């Protein structure tokens, strides 16, 4: 059955559909992208499909191999550690920037996200906690005002999704993560940039340990 495509540019919608297949592991890491099969499934020509593949390759989700075609990217333990290291440095720097330059209104908004995070933790709502956890990190990046940093972090986090592991489901990690968020937020509100930076780096390093 052909899947109905939305009104956005065709190749972008195709990229969305393939990206979802990758994140759900319908297209598993290392698997070959069968262009003929996908064009039939989506009811499209190869041109928008190949444009979509270029988009996903730029995000790191697809790897192009000479004379062999496109494959879903595989990431090993060492690569995951490298990705977490880069994200930790960038987000740590964002925390330092936010602590020194955020307005009171921006800090209130960040605090509001954290209050919702506390409630999700109390309700043991993992899905909601995960959503708010990401919102908390995204807001810090937004307030820092560096769109290039945000683009790099977004792309790297896309690649991390290939491992299909949620460290928050591990016993005790949700509570530990929440406590780490409390400390980060407290340091930011107190305008202690160096401490906030160090706490964020440690927070992401702990996330890496839990995900490994």
Textual characterization of the structure:
27% of the residues are buried. The chain has a two-stranded antiparallel ribbon. Helix 4 packs antiparallel against helix 7. The longest helix has 25 residues, at 77-101. It has 2 domains: 10-72, Orthogonal Bundle (Arc Repressor Mutant, subunit A); 77-211, GntR ligand-binding domain-like (Four Helix Bundle (Hemerythrin (Met), subunit A)), CATH 1.20.120. It has helices at residues 10-23, 35-42, 46-58, 77-101, 104-122, 126-144, 147-160, 173-189, 193-211, and strands at 62-65, 69-72. The chain is mostly helical. It is built from 9 helices and 2 strands. 70% of the residues lie in helices and 4% in strands. It is elongated.
Question: What is shown here, in short?
Answer:
The protein is mainly alpha-helical.
CATH architecture tag of the largest domain? Up-down Bundle
Q: What overall geometry do the principal axes of the alpha carbons give? A: elongated
* Major sheet: 2 strands, antiparallel
Q: Helical percent range?
A: 55-70%
Number of strands: 2
End-to-end CA span: 38 Å
Q: Would you identify the CATH H-level superfamily of the largest domain?
A: GntR ligand-binding domain-like
Low-confidence stretches: none
CATH structural fold name of the largest domain: Four Helix Bundle (Hemerythrin (Met), subunit A)
How many distinct folded domains?
Answer: 2
- Number of helix segments? 9
- Oligomeric assembly: single chain
Mean pLDDT: 90
Query: In CATH, what is the class of the largest domain?
Result: Mainly Alpha
Strand-residue proportion = under 5%
Look at the helices and sheets and give the structural class. Answer: mainly alpha
Query: C-alpha Rg, in Å?
Result: 19 Å
**Largest beta sheet: strand ordering:** 1-2
Q: Give the helices and strands as they follow along the chain.
A: HHHEEHHHHHH
């Amino acid at each position: 059955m052909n899947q109905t495509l939305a009104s956005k540019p065709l190749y972008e919608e195709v990229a969305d559909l393939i990206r979802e297949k990758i994140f759900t592991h319908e297209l598993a890491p290392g698997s070959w992208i069968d262009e003929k099969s996908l064009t039939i499934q989506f009811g499209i020509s190869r041109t928008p499909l190949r444009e979509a593949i270029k988009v996903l390759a730029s995000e790191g989700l697809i790897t192009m191999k000479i004379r062999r075609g496109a494959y879903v990217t595989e990431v090993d333990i060492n690569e995951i550690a490298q990705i977490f290291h880069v994200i930790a440095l960038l987000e740590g720097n964002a925390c330092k920037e936010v602590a020194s330059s955020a307005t009171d209104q921006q800090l209130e908004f960040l605090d509001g996200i954290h209050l919702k995070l506390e409630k999700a933790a109390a309700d043991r709502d993992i899905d909601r906690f995960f959503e708010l956890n990401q919102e908390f990190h995204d807001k810090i990046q937004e307030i820092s005002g560096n769109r290039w940093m945000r683009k790099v972090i977004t792309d790297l986090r896309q690649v991390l999704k290939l491992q299909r592991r949620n460290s928050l489901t591990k016993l005790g990690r949700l509570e530990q993560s929440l406590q780490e968020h409390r400390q980060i937020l407290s340091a930011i509100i107190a305008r202690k940039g160096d401490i906030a930076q160090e706490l964020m780096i440690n927070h992401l390093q702990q996330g890496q340990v839990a995900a490994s």
